[in-house]
């Protein structure tokens, strides 16, 4: 009965920013997105084998799921994989809040099942995890992951699922050159030893590690990410300069190097895609093989920046 680790592309595609309403400065990222623009992103991604789409109820309170479903219209369900999340902090008070939130997601996504379903943030692991079991048994969810959980919480969730013949098959945590809490806490090793796929999100630190921004070119004013990152951009300069140089030797950008680093560390990066050009970057990143010295140098520069980019929703790992 135990299912195999989900087969996924080298990079998963994030749609957190798709939850923005589309008005400039209105939403977490301050993105201006159009239905036709997102459809082009989907077409280019699908054509290049990037077929795993990661969303969540709380990305624009359902807006991201709805917009993603529209953008995927016309593709056979077998041609793409959907990853969405149960967020305990947004749960209703009903008899079975997990099943209830999943039903709403399935409705918005226009599908009968989700390939990968996550407990988004840890709350009461012993309370929420058992509610996933009937959903696995019914086939409404194919694989289970936990996000933003520490080692103890991951192990407890795995134990609870294990009693019913299932297991935690994926972990999704914030992981970047600036934030390696999961590595230092032994979570990457835990995943490697147990054939659990580790998905790294915020690999580009919401744009701050793309090399496109700096003290002279800050992130879009009025957005949450501008508030979080603009003040630390000067400290990131040495790192992003080195990433740009490493990329330049390979016809790639600083962002491509950050993604290649996350892949080299044995993780599956979830990269937010709002433009077709970002797909070109993922293709380039997949072709970059970083030398061990380059990885060590980038990590040393990341440590030297000495910034704390832990999100307000995250616990210490």
UniProtKB/TrEMBL annotation:
Q: Where is the NADP-dependent oxidoreductase domain?
A: 11-301
Cellular component terms, GO, for this chain's entry? cytosol
- List the keywords (alphabetical): Oxidoreductase
Q: Name one Pfam family in it.
A: Aldo_ket_red
Asked if Protein biosynthesis is a keyword of the record, the answer is no
> Can you say what this protein is called?
Predicted oxidoreductase
Query: InterPro entries of this UniProt entry?
Result: AKR, AKR_Detox_Biosynth, NAD(P)_OxRdtase_dom_sf, NADP_OxRdtase_dom
């Amino acid at each position: 009965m135990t299912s195999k680790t989900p087969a996924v592309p080298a990079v998963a595609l994030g749609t957190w920013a798709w939850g923005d309403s589309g008005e400039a400065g209105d939403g977490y990222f301050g993105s201006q997105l159009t239905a036709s623009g997102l459809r082009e992103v989907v077409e280019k991604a699908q054509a290049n084998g990037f077929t795993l789409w990661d969303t969540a109820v709380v990305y624009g309170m359902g807006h991201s799921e709805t917009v993603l479903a529209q953008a995927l219209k016309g593709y056979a369900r077998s041609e793409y994989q959907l990853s969405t999340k149960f967020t305990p902090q947004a749960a209703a008070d009903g008899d079975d809040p997990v099943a209830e939130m999943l039903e709403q997601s399935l409705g918005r996504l226009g599908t009968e099942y989700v390939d990968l379903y996550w407990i988004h943030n840890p709350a009461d692991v012993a309370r929420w995890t058992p509610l996933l079991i009937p959903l696995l048994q019914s086939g409404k969810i194919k694989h289970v992951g936990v996000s933003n959980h520490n080692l103890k919480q991951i192990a407890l969730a795995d134990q609870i699922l294990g009693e019913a013949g299932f297991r935690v098959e994926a972990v999704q945590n914030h992981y970047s050159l600036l934030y390696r809490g999961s590595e230092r806490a032994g979570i990457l090793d835990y995943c490697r030893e147990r054939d659990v796929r580790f998905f790294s999100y915020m690999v580009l630190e919401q744009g701050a590690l793309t090399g496109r921004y700096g003290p002279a070119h800050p992130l879009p004013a009025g957005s949450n990410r501008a508030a979080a990152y603009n003040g630390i951009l000067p400290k990131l300069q040495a790192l992003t300069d080195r990433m740009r140089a490493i990329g330049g030797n390979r016809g790639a950008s600083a962002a491509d190097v950050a993604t290649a680093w996350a892949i080299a560390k044995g993780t599956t990066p979830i990269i937010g895609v709002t433009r077709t050009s970002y797909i070109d970057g993922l293709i380039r990143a997949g072709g970059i093989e970083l030398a061990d010295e380059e990885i060590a140098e980038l990590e040393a520069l990341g440590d030297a920046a000495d910034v704390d980019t832990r999100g307000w929703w995250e616990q210490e790992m």
